[in-house]
Automatic annotation (TrEMBL):
Subcellular location: Plastid, Chloroplast
Protein name: OBG-type G domain-containing protein
GO cellular component, one term: chloroplast
OBG-type G domain location: 66-294
Length: 371
């Protein structure tokens, strides 16, 4: 049996299994099996592959301060948006699958350069290799923000279909990794603890966790739940290859629907409504994309000289925010070694200038003098 068939079989069994306290553990084990198979599917070198057809990726060099990928069904207006936002022409037409490769453009915004990638449309089954789905999703994984284009005139079910496709390849949209401590050990068995009541894991959370760990053949480890997480969150942690990416849902073609319909769509979380044809709300789209990227522009200055306000260092958020450390590694490899202190002017300070250490968190438009 191939991997896809095994996946289908487990999905069927999960759908058939009634969710109650007696089946929680079994369901957890099935979820772990499913996660393992999906990981296998994503690693064709394991021999099982499953993509089929032309597996050549869309190699586009990263450029600029951040990368945004346009993901959507065919003919929702992705290429129209690329041409409008970047000035790079990408062919747009009324037939599906007009775009066949990855086409990069650049958005110049607030002194930063953002790479926007137009991609072929994807449909249900993309993650399992339908059309160019796998290559498209691989590009989505490399992005700092996914701009999910939706056709406002089409059923909103498209959104859930695309979310499920991305989810099944290990992308997590608008989520943070769960706060769970997990450490594999050589001996000592499984130690499970929780600091909060667990409401999403049935009557016996430790049993569910044990079943999942058993499925991964992990027999010695320490687990501490520090938040009310689910078993899916725990599996994400054990798998370890998840990508947590922000996603902005952009409903295009609002010129073709009623004001009432526009109102409903505009109220969805992380959403924006636009018309690329009529240039409606496109400024807001740019502002929202910028806001979600949460880039931090830092102006550096040398002692006794004014800061260079033309060329900021543009830093992206890692875990734990943007710090002086982030800035130093961005500027020069050896800078951290010689680092003693920095002076900071700007929003991140209590008083200016403030003398800070390398863990000081920076904010957009701060001015920094190192040493
Ligand atoms: N009414 C309306 N039509 C639009 C709008 N934006 C794009 N279109 C039309 O939608 C069709 C598809 O546009 P494309 O930009 O080719 O869409 P795409 O998502 O790149 O399509 P594929 O590359 O085939 O996946 C074209 O006929 C566009 O003219 C809009 O804001 N309103
Ligand atoms: K099209
Ligand atoms: Mg296109």
């Amino acid at each position: 049996m191939g991997i896809k068939e095994k996946i289908a079989e487990i999905q069927l069994e999960m759908a058939r299994t009634q969710k109650n306290k007696a089946t929680e553990g079994h369901l957890g084990m099935l979820k772990a099996k499913l996660a393992k198979l999906r990981t296998q599917l994503l690693n064709p070198e394991d021999g099982a592959g499953g993509g089929g057809g032309d597996d050549k990726g869309f190699e586009v060099v990263k450029y600029g301060d951040a990368r945004i990928a346009l993901i959507g069904f065919p003919s929702v207006g992705k290429s129209t948006a690329l041409s409008l936002l970047t000035g790079t022409e990408s062919e747009a037409a009324a037939y599906e699958f007009t775009t066949l490769t990855c086409i990069p453009g650049i958005i110049n915004y607030k002194g930063t350069k953002i790479q926007l990638l137009d991609l072929p449309g994807i449909i249900e089954g993309a993650a399992q290799g339908k059309g160019r789905g796998r290559q498209v999703i691989a590009v989505a994984k490399s992005a700092d923000l996914i701009l999910m284009m939706l056709d406002a005139t089409k059923p909103d079910a498209h959104k859930a279909i695309l979310e499920a496709e991305l989810e099944s390849t290990g992308i997590r949209l608008n989520k943070n990794p769960a706060d769970i401590y997990f450490k594999k050990k050589k001996t000592g068995g499984i130690k499970f603890n929780t600091m909060v009541p667990l409401t999403k894991m049935g009557e016996n959370p430790s049993d569910v966790v044990y079943r999942v760990l058993h499925e991964y053949k992990i027999h010695n480890c320490e687990v501490v739940f520090r938040e009310d997480a689910s078993i899916d969150d725990f599996i994400d942690l054990v798998e370890g290859n998840r990508r947590f990416i922000k996603c902005l849902y952009c409903y295009n073609k609002i010129d073709a629907i009623t004001m009432e319909e526009v109102d409903v769509l505009a109220k969805q979380p992380h959403s924006i409504v636009v018309s690329c044809h009529q240039n409606l709300n496109v400024d807001r789209l740019l502002a929202k994309m910028w806001e979600m990227l949460a880039l931090v522009r830092v102006y550096t200055r040398r002692r006794g000289e004014p800061p260079d306000l033309n060329e900021p260092s543009v830093l992206t958020h890692g875990r734990g925010g943007v710090t002086i450390k982030t800035l130093c590694s961005h500027l020069h490899r050896d800078m951290l070694k010689e680092f003693k202190y920095a002076l900071v002017w700007g929003q991140s300070c209590k008083h200016t200038p403030q003398r800070v250490g390398k863990d000081h968190e920076l904010m957009d438009e701060d001015v920094v003098q190192v040493g």
